[in-house]
Amino acid sequence: MSALKDSHTSAKGCRFLQVLKQLAIRNRILRALPAEEFARIVPHLKRVQLAKDEIIYLSGDAIEHVYLLESGLVSLLSTTDSGSNIEVAMISVEGVVGLPIILKNSSIPYEVSARFPTEAFKLRAEIFQAEFERGQALHEFVLRYLNVMITQIQQSSICARFHRLDETLSRWLLTVHDQVKTDTLILTQQAISNALGVPRTAVTVAAGTLQRGGAIRYSRGKITILDRERLEASSCECYRVVRDELHHFLNE
């Protein structure tokens, strides 16, 4: 009887430690999983550090791993034959890099690189796909996140077509600020130019407009957000559409 009691106590202790481990997770999908699903995945997670500007995947690469972000920010870039880039989406602690694998697409159609120093969990693609195909919570959460990605891509397209560049830059800076949680952003003109798909001279003009309005301070390679409210006032509605979708995608 004592042995049974000790075994029960030990099992409860293990479950408690498992809950504590999951609560320490920052990735929103992993954190929201039921304990049973999390327990199946956690032995296969490998924590990795990604340096600023580190390339995770080039367009056409085989998807061998998915990355569930714990901090930082990665950028999904589409590249033309002439070498021009435009950012199609950003991923942070809410999401997963490597989603084409759930659509049975074994190669990635865009370049993925770390916009800032980033921490992530690396998971073999076949394990992630097998868990997704069980049709349980991970399946539902990933599909909800896929909708967030579609919304982000949709609004980026609308923004590029219909909004002034200072509005687009405001939207982009607000999104970055939300994810990296710092007022000082180390960003070159070229990085912003690649993200927005505009010439560097246009970035200079738009940043100058925001600086004169008191929203940011802009110098070579660095943007400091001085007044978040002014930056939000300068942004188009695209920021709020994506932000609200992102905030609510795991809510009932």
What does this structure look like?
- This protein has helices at 2-23, 28-32, 35-41, 125-133, 137-162, 165-180, 189-196, 200-212, 228-234, 237-248; strands at 46-50, 55-57, 65-71, 74-79, 85-91, 96-97, 111-114, 118-124, 184-185, 216-219, 222-225.
- Strand 4 and strand 5 (85-91) form a beta hairpin.
- Helix content is 50%, strand content 20%.
- It has 10 helices and 11 strands.
- The mean pLDDT is 91.
- The protein has a 4-stranded antiparallel sheet with strand order 1-8-3-6. The protein has a 4-stranded antiparallel sheet with strand order 2-7-4-5.
- Helix 5 packs antiparallel against helix 10 (237-248) and helix 6 packs across helix 8 (200-212).
- By secondary structure, the protein is α+β, with helices and mostly antiparallel strands.
Would you spell out the secondary-structure blueprint of this structure?
Layout: H1 2-23, H2 28-32, H3 35-41, E1 46-50, E2 55-57, E3 65-71, E4 74-79, E5 85-91, E6 96-97, E7 111-114, E8 118-124, H4 125-133, H5 137-162, H6 165-180, E9 184-185, H7 189-196, H8 200-212, E10 216-219, E11 222-225, H9 228-234, H10 237-248
Antiparallel strand pairs: 1-8, 2-7, 3-6, 3-8, 4-5, 4-7, 9-11, 10-11
